[in-house]
Amino acid sequence: MLLEIPGVLNRAQLDKIDQVLANARFVDGRLTAGMAARRVKHNQELEREPKTMELLIRILVSALSHNETFNSAVLPYRMADPIFARYRPGMTYGDHVDDAIMGRSGPRFRSDVSMTLFLRDPESYQGGELVIRTTFGDRRVKLAAGDAVIYPSSSLHHVAEVTAGERLVALAWIQSHVRDPARRELLYELNRAREALLKRAPEEESTALVDKSFANLVRMWADV
Length: 224
Ligand code: NI
Known about the structure:
Blueprint: E1 3-5, H1 11-22, E2 26-28, H2 35-38, E3 41-42, E4 44-46, H3 50-65, H4 68-74, E5 76-79, E6 83-87, E7 92-96, E8 101-102, E9 109-110, E10 113-118, E11 126-127, E12 130-134, E13 137-141, E14 148-152, E15 157-159, E16 162-164, E17 167-176, H5 181-200, H6 205-221
Antiparallel strand pairs: 1-14, 2-4, 3-7, 4-6, 5-17, 6-17, 7-15, 8-9, 10-14, 10-17, 11-16, 12-13, 12-15
Helix pairs in contact: 1-3, 5-6
The protein binds nickel (II) ion.
């Protein structure tokens, strides 16, 4: 499932991130790329300076942990420290699939869900769409600052060349409690139906059955 999540970060959080990044150093993105991705990766990434990273991670993790759509669609179990990537004119990231195992420094985990969080207004740069190849064709994604898109880490994707301005994004990879994308999508939709029923008809027996089925499907499929 490819899902856009609007308003993950608010204006105050975006301003704070801008402030932190204003004096930060960016390095060649190829340093963090796997062997296959290195050939097609041409961008810059924030240098992992502990104080800066801690501040940025705190903003991002607190925003994500409070976001109901993110939690319901991803069912997050573990998450790597996010990467902040910058694309200036001429920069691009060709077709690739994200690494399956993440977490070089800390504990290792499997990437199930990839997230791109847009940090710049789309009018402020040209190009720079995230293009995800799905079975229904290519999806081109370029969202408002503060919005995120999540998609299965197994998808082939690329970033179109930036031709003017600067594309700035935060990237995160998450291991889900539920590994299979089709099961995650089913649980996400069932949970939406469950929440609507709990609001509209909390006393009805069918609501209790949907609620019970949701909980027991999670129990059946979840890794912990
Ligand atoms: Ni990628």
